[in-house]
């Protein structure tokens, strides 16, 4: 089982975040996304390194 969420990068951390309380959302940090969306608040996945699951070509094809 796996989980990749704004609360954590694995099941245990995500579960702890759910139990601890409210979602840790905040202002969006990426300016390229800011220009395309009307919302100002996001729950971004931070600290994820896709190189462990995707090769370089697939990383370029997928949205961050």
Q: How would you describe this protein?
A:
Helix content is 31%, strand content 6%. It is mainly α. The chain has a two-stranded antiparallel sheet with strand order 1-2.
- How far apart are the termini? 22 Å
Main β-sheet, in a few words?
2 strands, antiparallel
Work out the strand percent.
5-15%
SSE arrangement, N to C: HEHEH
| Rg computed from alpha carbons, rounded to a whole number of angstroms | 14 Å
What is the percent of helical residues? 25-40%
Low-confidence sequence ranges: none
What is the total number of structural domains?
1
The structure class reads mainly alpha
Number of strands: 2
Mean pLDDT: 79
Strand order of the largest sheet: 1-2
Total DSSP helices: 3
Query: Which word captures the global form?
Result: flat
**Multimeric state:** single chain
What's the helix and strand layout?
Blueprint: H1 11-20, E1 26-27, H2 31-34, E2 41-42, H3 56-61
Antiparallel strand pairs: 1-2
Short description:
By secondary structure, the protein is mainly alpha-helical. The chain has helices at residues 11-20, 31-34, 56-61; strands spanning 26-27, 41-42.
Descriptors for this entry?
about 60 residues; mainly alpha
């Amino acid at each position: 089982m796996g989980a990749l969420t704004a609360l954590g990068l694995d099941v245990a951390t995500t579960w702890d975040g759910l139990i601890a309380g409210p979602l840790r959302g905040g202002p969006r940090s990426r300016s390229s996304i800011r220009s395309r969306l009307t919302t100002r608040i996001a729950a971004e996945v931070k600290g994820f390194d896709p190189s462990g699951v995707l090769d370089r070509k697939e990383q370029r094809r997928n949205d961050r």
